[in-house]
Amino acid sequence: MPKTPTPRSGSKGGKGLGKSAKVSSMRHRKLLRENIKAITRPAIRRMARRGGVKRISGEIYEIARTCIKDFVTDVLRDCVSYVEYERKKTVGVMEMLLALKRQGRTLYGFDHEIRGRHTHAHFHY
């Protein structure tokens, strides 16, 4: 959950979302609502096609969005647990892989050097 803006000590720049006259000493985080709508009907249709679905009812799209949101929420909850344990602030590839593995959805195709600099996927055919 996003925290409410808190005053910062001093007005020395740093990471922020810009400086304005009114909010120079406050840090804001944009609240995203209804961002599940960003998963469009064509995107859901493409996923269904990949899964072998030939014809799709119009009522499926909201149900699919709900299922996708539930899945992503569960995975991210585990990712955040790993990140908080390691006292980091960024969810990385390794946390995502461990969260998926914990839920029984092991994802193959990533290099073993993930803890180092190589954070991209290596696909072996």
UniProtKB/TrEMBL annotation:
<dbReference type="InterPro" id="IPR009072">
    <property type="entry name" value="Histone-fold"/>
</dbReference>
<comment type="function">
    <text>Core component of nucleosome. Nucleosomes wrap and compact DNA into chromatin, limiting DNA accessibility to the cellular machineries which require DNA as a template. Histones thereby play a central role in transcription regulation, DNA repair, DNA replication and chromosomal stability. DNA accessibility is regulated via a complex set of post-translational modifications of histones, also called histone code, and nucleosome remodeling.</text>
</comment>
<protein>
    <recommendedName>
        <fullName>Histone H4</fullName>
    </recommendedName>
</protein>
<comment type="subunit">
    <text>The nucleosome is a histone octamer containing two molecules each of H2A, H2B, H3 and H4 assembled in one H3-H4 heterotetramer and two H2A-H2B heterodimers. The octamer wraps approximately 147 bp of DNA.</text>
</comment>
<dbReference type="GO" id="GO:0046982">
    <property type="term" value="F:protein heterodimerization activity"/>
</dbReference>
<dbReference type="GO" id="GO:0000786">
    <property type="term" value="C:nucleosome"/>
</dbReference>
<keyword id="KW-0539">Nucleus</keyword>
<keyword id="KW-0238">DNA-binding</keyword>
<dbReference type="GO" id="GO:0005634">
    <property type="term" value="C:nucleus"/>
</dbReference>
<dbReference type="GO" id="GO:0003677">
    <property type="term" value="F:DNA binding"/>
</dbReference>
<keyword id="KW-0544">Nucleosome core</keyword>
<feature type="region of interest" description="Disordered">
    <location>
        <begin position="1"/>
        <end position="27"/>
    </location>
</feature>
<dbReference type="GO" id="GO:0030527">
    <property type="term" value="F:structural constituent of chromatin"/>
</dbReference>
<keyword id="KW-0158">Chromosome</keyword>
<dbReference type="InterPro" id="IPR001951">
    <property type="entry name" value="Histone_H4"/>
</dbReference>
<comment type="similarity">
    <text>Belongs to the histone H4 family.</text>
</comment>
